[in-house]
Amino acid sequence: MTAKPGAAKGGIATVKYDEVEVGQEIPAVGYPVRRVNLVMYAGASGDFNPIHWNERHAKAVGLPDVIAHGMYTMAQGGRFITDWAGDPGAVVDYGVRFSSMVVVPDDDEGATVSISGRIEEKLDGNRVIVVLTAKSGDSRVLSKARAIVQLA
């Protein structure tokens, strides 16, 4: 990944409200997902369900392979927004629906979650609504993904 447009300076959002427009696109960023990421997330979250790390178990319950935790995928969307805004505290509200799985094969590639955004609406008080698109391969993995972000 490269430097983000809103890289933090002093703990406040660095993206300025007056410099964004409705319909403005936020370029996609690809987040690699490997099995080791899922094991680390399991440790941090306490969610050790074997569908997230054991291929035999995942396939035995009818999944195509190990799948990423839904909350892990959601967290990548949150990361995308906070990186863009330049301040994690700028996110006022964030919600998603899970629409598809991120299948993570056990190889050198793993999977990639690609996330992009668009300014949907400008609100009073220097706030904007950002809608996110999150895909893995050809599948949209998050739907109704929106964040309200407090800008400078």
Automatic annotation (TrEMBL):
Record-linked Gene3D superfamilies: Hotdog Thioesterase
Coiled-coil zones: none
Name by which UniProt lists this protein: MaoC family dehydratase
SUPFAM superfamilies documented for this protein: Thioesterase/thiol ester dehydrase-isomerase (SSF54637)
Sequence ranges assigned to domain MaoC-like in this UniProt record: 22-107
Pfam families, per database record: MaoC_dehydratas
Alphabetical list of InterPro entries matching this protein: Fatty_acid_synthase, HotDog_dom_sf, MaoC-like_dom
CDD domains in the cross-refs: SAV4209_like
Source taxon at top rank: Bacteria
Similarity comment text for this entry: Belongs to the enoyl-CoA hydratase/isomerase family.
Natural source organism: Sphaerimonospora cavernae
